Structures are given as C-alpha cells and as structure tokens.
Amino acid sequence: GENVEQHPSTLSVQEGDSAVIKCTYSDSASNYFPWYKQELGKRPQLIIDIRSNVGEKKDQRIAVTLNKTAKHFSLHITETQPEDSAVYFCAATQYNNNDMRFGAGTRLTVKP
Amino acid sequence: DTEVTQTPKHLVMGMTNKKSLKCEQHMGHRAMYWYKQKAKKPPELMFVYSYEKLSINESVPSRFSPECPNSSLLNLHLHALQPEDSALYLCASSQAGGRELFFGEGSRLTVL
Questions:
Q1: Distance (Å) from the C-alpha of residue B76 to the closest C-alpha of chain A?
Q2: Closest chain A residue to B41 measured between Cα atoms?
Q3: pLDDT tens, position by position, A55-102
Q4: B97/A99 Cβ within 8 A
Q5: Nearest alpha carbon to residue A28 among A90, A74, A71, A66
C-alpha cells in the first residue's frame, strides 16, 4: 500500500490565522487524496478530498492543493476557529482502490 | 441513513475469552473496513471486504478473525487476545474503493 508522510505532527495557531499541513506520497499511480478530521473522542470524518485531475479544490475556509510532479499535497485552513482544533489525517490511494492508509496525523490547536 | 453502527461501544475481556465486534451499515456500500487505532496514532488498516469478499488482510494475527455475513454486516471475532491489542477498533464503509470512508464511533477494547 501507499506510504504517506505528514508534517508537522503538531501545529498551534492563533484564532484567525491560517494553518497548513503537508503530505507527501511515493506512488505516482495514486490519484485520490482525502483529508479526515478527528475531534477528541470522535470518529474520523472526511472534510475534503481531491482527485489528480485538478490542482486545487476549495470548500469555504478549507482548501487542498496537489502537486503531482513533486508528489505532495497540502491542506489549507484559513481564518481558523477554536472548533478547528482536532487531529487531521491525510491519505493517498487510487480511485476504486480499497487500500486506504493514513498519514501519521497532525494535531492542530487553535488558541482563542 | 448515513450511519455506521458499531456494537459494543466498550468491551473488556480476558486473554482467554472469545468475543465479537459488530458493524452495520445500510447505505448500500460495498466496501467495509476494520481499522485499529491506538492513542495518538492514526487508524491502522486491518481488513477490507469488497463485495463481501476479503480483499485486504494486513498480516493481522489470527487471533483476529473477520467475517462479512452479508453486504450490510461486518464482524470481527476476537480470541486469545493480548493486552497490547487494547485499542479503539473502527469500522468504516464506502461506496467502493478510493471513495469517502464513513466511520462508526468505534468499539473500545480493553484486554486484561
């Protein structure tokens, strides 16, 4: 399965600032890149995903960018709020492939 | 119905016990997953069923035995577990591979 490296492992920002989390992958055949958010004591939930036929996708304050050449993709959160505090996991796989493995996770803390 | 339901929510068992974790979804999803999550770690893929057939087995010890009786149900049979198997066991389902995973709330297992 695909191995994904995720950085940083922890990130602390002030409310209203932006946060960026980066992931790199190794398999050039990977074409589906989801991001999951897991709040403390809760289940992981998909917040945004991107397929390799686009370079960027936005959903309100959240965006994901993909650089296929460099094999990395990033999650961008703007105007952070305390409720954005959670652990974020990236993954990389092939569309229609069941092998979904996660990066090590980034613990984001947004300070009021 | 967009829920994945897991039972029990909590389970305490001795090393000689036999128990089962259950997972159910009624979204018509054809892929179902078991993940193991230790504290402050990402979900770790254990098994994947696709169209009721085991498609991925991540070299999980035989004391964990998955079963998919039908397209809506997924079981994880536990026998002779070790204390290090204590973790949160997450079930997930997806429409197909490489798509959004819908997670259950998890079953927190403690092995004494």
A1: 18
A2: A104
A3: 999 999 999 999 999 999 999 999 999 999 999 999 999 988 889 999
A4: yes
A5: A71
